[in-house]
Specification:
The structure holds two protein chains of two kinds.
Chain A (H helix, E strand, L loop, with lengths): L1 E5 H12 L13 E7 L2 E7 L3 E13 L1 E6 H10 L4 E7 L2 E5 L4 E5 L15 E7 H11 L14 E7 L2 E7 L3 E8 L2 E2 L7 E4 H9 L6 E7 L4 E5 L3 E6 L18 E6 H15 L5 E6 L3 E8 L3 E13 L2 E6 H10 L4 E6 L6 E5 L2 E8 L7
Antiparallel strand pairs in A: 1-4, 1-6, 2-3, 2-5, 3-4, 4-17, 6-7, 7-8, 9-13, 9-15, 10-11, 10-14, 11-12, 12-25, 15-16, 16-17, 18-21, 18-23, 19-20, 19-22, 20-21, 23-24, 24-25
Helix pairs in contact in A: 1-2, 3-4, 5-6
Chain B lengths: L2 H17 L2 H8 L3 E6 L2 E6 L2 H23 L4 E6 L11 H4 L2 H8 L19 H12 L8 E4 L6 H15 L5 E5 H13 L3 H9 L3 E5 L8 H16 L3 E6 L11 H7 L3 E4 L5 H14 L6 H8 L5 H17 L6 H8 L1 H8 L2 H12 L3 H5 L5 H18 L3 H7 L5 H14 L3 H20 L1
Parallel strand pairs in B: 2-3, 4-7, 4-8, 5-6, 6-7
Antiparallel strand pairs in B: 1-2
The chains are: A alpha+beta, B alpha/beta.
Amino acid sequence: MKADVLTDNLKKGLSIAFRAISTRSQLPVLLNFLLEAKNGFIYISATDLEIGITTKAPAKIEQEGATTVPAKTFLDLISSINEEKTTLSLSGSQLILSGKHLKTSFPTISAEEFPKILNEKGKKIALIKTKEALGALSRVVFAASQDMGRPALSGVLMKREGEGLILVATDGYRLSLRKNFMPLFKEGDIEGLIVPSRILRELVGFGEDSEEYDFYVSKETNQVVFSTKDVVLVGRLIEAEYPDYKKILPEDFETKAVFDRSDAQNAVKACSVFAREAANIIRVAVGKNKVVFSSSASSVGENEIDVEAVVEGEENEIAFNSRYLLDFLSSIDDQEIDFRMMGPLNPGVFRSPKDKDYLHIIMPIRIQG
Amino acid sequence: MDQKNSELWEKILAEIQTEVSTANFLTLFKGTSLISFEDGVATIAAPSSMIIDLLQKRFYEMIQQIFNKYSRSSAKIIFVPRTVVLNSIDTGPLFSTPEKPKSIGHLPRVRRDYTFQTMAVSSSNQLAFVSASRVAEKLGESYNPLFIYGPVGVGKTHLMQAIANKVYEDDPNSKILYITSEEFTNEVVEAIRTNDTARMKRRFRNVSLLLIDDIQFIAGKDRVQEELFHTFNILVDNGAQIVLSSDRPPTEIQKIEKRLLSRFAGGLTVDIETPDFELRCAILLIKTKKFSFDLSMETAKAIAEKTEDTRELEGMLLRIITESTTRNAVPSPELVLQVLGTEDEKSASFHPDEIIKNTCSFYGVKETHLKSPKRDARLVRARQICMYLLKKELDLTFVEIGNLLGGRDHTTIMHGVEKIERMISEKKPKEDILGITQGILRKSLDN
């Protein structure tokens, strides 16, 4: 294997693929990048066996070939060198990276050892516009469970509803829902897929690198694939029954408060200082024309912050886990938040007046007094 | 994945674990399962195509060899990407709570154990039971309102709450409001006081089942009746069901507006009678099951003989249960007699002669003196206490008591009893009376 590549292109490719690497992987080969030189590109792949990413960097190939190198060190090195162009070549079991002033060698593991990231895409069911997708996904994905022991909750439910898709994510303590997510539908239909939140999180992480994604689903290989011109993101579908989210969507409310999001975010952040010491509990009291966030930790101190609000209905009080409040408040960038509640025991409902299709629910914490 | 396959695969995995490194085993084999094995083909599920690729590349031969060893075959192995979710998993409080907050929000103060299943039925309450179950099945269609009346402790509340529980069980989303008429009154008053009747109206008029217990207490409360009247009309128009209970039939409730009364009686009015002996036994047996306690039929009968009120029945049962657990004795009719029997024995053993005899020995006076016209202070006190006891314990007439105590006039007896009654709050006569009655009791127990 021998190839010349622009350092910047290689760096970009590596940092995208690096997202698929999990430091928890126990097999050495999974901590490596697979580098394949062929067809005028260096293909870079990485996987943790749950998701896989393949991307490519244009290169001048002198000799085709493939190998794997330790991902972390390789990426760190490429990010810190100052060479415009580098040459990759294989010498025995070493990968030699050389530039004008530079010569580095890396130990390798044979490319044979590397799990194949399946390229069978299956049916192309939709085309997703990045701009719209990022906003919607980032409001939903964070609510999914990170606990692989609960497969259904570790995914995001995508289901056709009316003209668009509905996205739902929950970890059993909070839930995010976004209706009317509008991809351009192609073949087939989406009648209820649970896509690993991990893969969507990475998709959000790519930012607006590409304008649109193709969305493929293959029932035979049980895979979902998101692909752009340069990147292929592969994951497996989760086969599990998704909990009935409809039954927990509150219909009625006693109290409604509309307030500024960033004010609330700052208030919650400040309260978190004490809440950290007291099971993360933040009390939210809706008063006449304000919402009071407060926290107290007996040995540390207590704190109370007012946020101006337009209030309808009764005065009310509820308590939430500060982490969930912060996750939600930082997941969106709209200016206002519409908060509704029905007593201290029913889930609190958060909306954005700007985004009618969005809904976030947080389970309250029961408190005494 | 059937049992046989999973057992087979478990054995195979155990052997594979000894062959491969821990890292490989955990990463590649942990999520696998044997989903079918037929016609010489074993289908193994693994979570992702990447894992399958590695399994095929590195371990195919080993897996096949071990598989064939255990299955005694020469099978071909194929892999499919699939995660087998074993059992339904915990979905967290958000999904488990709807039952809870709703039961707090929708069925406050409705006891879960008051259901149709836990209700004992006999001829005294059969009609009420049947109509209540009809109502619970077809809200607003059968009898509207259902008016249940009967004396204390016959199961009116049980029946109403059974309706609420049944409707809630069939559809936890249905809006049910169970309320006593006192609470209803309080809410109306509160709403008028805070000038917020809109909220109260929303609360009462948006339900599909409204149950008001002890409706007779709204008698004389005009504003409450007016509110109820309008609520009533709106609910009936909306096809919502109304269930009311009272201690007397609608026609006998005083101080309630005519238009309201005629609406009460507009549906079905059923009464529950005092439970008969058999029903009381059945109730006892049902209640004991709730406390997971064993009660023989004979014991149940013994308790049922003691009272007619079902609430008192439950209290007695509880006493028996506590007694038998503390004494570590099997509940028996004898135990019942010992624990609950006091009242009975009292009246049985308190023969008038006994009372007179004991009073005399207590005060150290002669019976003949007690019955004589002598009026020593000590004698008078003893005589009056005796009159009091004969009246209170045996409920004899004043004339009878007068005859027993040496032919005294009934007005004398009246005066004596009244005097002790006035003094009874003082310590001394009270202690005396207790001493006498206990003396009689002790004697009867010794026999």
